[in-house]
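Side project, low priority. Logging it here so it doesn't get lost.
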Amino acid sequence: MQGYSHDGNNVGWGIYCGNYMGLTENTDDVRKYYGGARFSANASNNTFLALLNDTAYPFDYFTDIVVCGGYNDHSYSESDILNGISAFITRAKTKYPNAKIHIGCVAYNKEGNGEGAEPNWETYRSQIINMVIPTYQKCVEYGAHYLNNVEYWLGESGLTPSDGYHPSEAGNRSIARALANALLTGSAPLPYNGSLRVS
C-alpha cells in the first residue's frame, strides 16, 4: 500500500481502493501501512499485528478492517504465516469487536520476470494452492472474511515494473479494483483487467 516501486514510487492501492468506494481518508478510511510488513509471526515488529497494536482508536470506531498480505511473507514458513494470520484476527476481534475483518492475498511472486513478461503460471498456481487456500481456511476457522479472487491481480503482464513483483501504477489500480469489488460484492470478478491466464 506504500506505493513503492523499483522504478520509482507511485500512488498505492489503498488510495485508489478508497476512492473507488467513495471513502474519505481519515474520516471513513484510515490507512496503516509500513514497507515490508507481513503476517509472519517471526518477522519481529514489522507485522500487521504490530500495525494493529499501534492503532489508537475507540473500540467501536471501525466497521471493517482490511488487510492484504502476500509477497512479504514469501520467505517464511506456512506455519509462521498462518500463526500470524490467526494472531492478527484474534487481536483485531478483541480490540475492535464490532468490526468485520477482511483478509486478502495480493502480491505473490510471478517469478520476477519483469515488465511485460508472462507470469510463471505453474509456480503461481502452486503458491495459490500452498498459501492462499490455507489462508482462506484460517479465515473461516477464526471468523474473518476472505477477499475472494484478489490473489489473481497478476493475471495480466504489465502490472509490475522491472523487478517483476512490486505493482506499477496500473498494478496498484488493478489491486484496488479487485479489492473494491471483493469488499462490495464478496468477490473480485474473474476475469478482470482483461484476459486472465490460468493454464
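Brief comment: The chain is about 35% helix and 5% strand.
Revisit when time allows.
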